[in-house]
Design brief:
By secondary structure, the chain is an alpha+beta fold. The protein has 2 helices and 5 strands; from the N terminus they run H-H-E-E-E-E-E. The chain is elongated and about 60 Å long.
Length: about 140
């Protein structure tokens, strides 16, 4: 198991380093330097590139979270009424995504979707720490 985790981590690290290298190349691309003359232009470009890197890093970290798919035997409880929910994302299907606006910009969160027939509400459980009544799901 540790080997699998280590190889997955190394794969993510290589991906991150390629993305960081691409951001560096965009910042220092000779064909772009005429657009990066003032401090303000440089700051905006660097900020944009680092926000993109941060958003990508957040998405990668979320994707590696074991809670993206429910593995328990009992269905998660609805965060509103605490009754068992119904799975809407079959285990073999790709995970649905929803866009969130973060400090880094738009980030896509992918998790299993569950539905409460009582409340008629869909939700995305965030793992075993999320308990009924937390309402932040």
């Amino acid at each position: 198991m540790a080997q699998s985790t280590d190889s997955r981590r190394e794969r993510l690290k290589r991906l991150w380093l390629r993305q960081a290298e691409a951001a560096f190349e965009l910042m220092f691309d000779a064909d772009q330097q005429d657009r990066l003359v003032t401090f303000d232009q440089r700051e905006r470009r660097a900020g944009s590139l680092t926000r993109e890197l941060a958003a990508g890093l957040i998405e990668q970290h979320i994707a590696e979270d074991p809670a993206v798919r429910h593995t328990g035997t009992d269905a998660p409880a609805c965060p509103r009424c605490a009754r068992p929910a119904r799975r809407e994302t079959p285990p073999e299907d790709p995970l649905p995504g929803r866009s969130l606006t973060s400090a880094a910009g738009e980030v896509t969160l992918r998790r299993e979707r569950w539905y409460c027939p009582t409340c008629r509400a869909a939700f995305f459980p965030s793992g075993p720490q999320a308990r009924p009544g937390h309402r932040g799901l």
